[in-house]
């Protein structure tokens, strides 16, 4: 788990999981490029990394726009000349509504960020890694990629798509020293889950939180650092022959069954 001399690129780096992963990479010697649409959040992540003695930069980008994806890739290369680890993490939750009532524009936006953004990230980072002859990509999926999630048509569809992209991309590049995997978080203590809880029960979001906790064999949500740990493993030499698969981090929820009625997210 030593990333000394390596460069890690993280989209959605201003959020809970992204920030925790940036800190994890930096603490193990990596130089970190934080990418986020929210400049204040992204800069805050960089500030925390630097406060803890790490090296980090920030680039603002909308990951659904090809020109901005090219920009964050080039900014990373301009700063450090390579990309060893890419945490393709940016995502949004969208709105909760029955499939027949789901807003067209919201559906398109969720797919654009969560699926097109992952595709564009790989499209422009993979050539860098292929030239290097090495590299590891981890895409953020979700337990919503494994099960139906009521009211979350766009989110679940996007995350199912992320797993498909992961498997195809991994097979495209495995022979060239580049690995592509995914991480599937269950409910995590982040802003996204607070949003989903409030949408499920605006009058008492804590009741949703409590129900989610009770339904997990571990009896709790995941912490962002626990998702970061899986990402760091998948990017490390410990996972040198692990590609085309996903790690589920959900406190045993998916193994216990009965998840389809729960408001899953990351």
The CATH class name reads Alpha Beta
Q: Structural class, please?
A: alpha/beta
CATH H level, superfamily name: NAD(P)-binding Rossmann-like Domain
Number of domain modules: 1
C-alpha end-to-end distance: 24 Å
CATH architecture: 3-Layer(aba) Sandwich
CATH third-tier fold name: Rossmann fold
Strand content: 5-15%
Number of strands: 7
What is the spatial order of strands in the main beta sheet? 3-2-1-4-5-6-7
**Mean pLDDT over all positions:** 94
Largest sheet data: 7 strands, parallel
Helix content: 40-55%
Q: What gyration radius follows from the Cα positions, in whole Å?
A: 17 Å
What does this structure look like?
The chain has 9 helices and 7 strands, in the order E-H-E-H-E-H-E-H-E-H-E-H-H-H-E-H. It is an alpha/beta fold and 266 residues long. It has one domain: 3-Layer(aba) Sandwich (Rossmann fold), CATH 3.40.50.720. The protein has a 7-stranded parallel beta sheet with strand order 3-2-1-4-5-6-7, sandwiched between helices. Strand 2, helix 2 and strand 3 form a beta-alpha-beta unit. 52% of the residues are buried.
Task: List its traits.
266 residues; alpha/beta; Rossmann fold; 7-stranded parallel β-sheet; 9 helices; 7 strands; globular; disordered C terminus
Layout of secondary structure:
Layout (H helix, E strand, L loop, with lengths): L6 E5 L4 H12 L3 E6 L2 H13 L3 E6 L5 H15 L4 E4 L15 H29 L2 E6 L12 H21 L4 E8 L5 H10 L4 H11 L8 H12 L10 E4 L3 H4 L10
Parallel strand pairs: 1-2, 1-4, 2-3, 4-5, 5-6, 6-7
Helix pairs in contact: 1-2, 1-8, 3-4, 4-5, 6-7
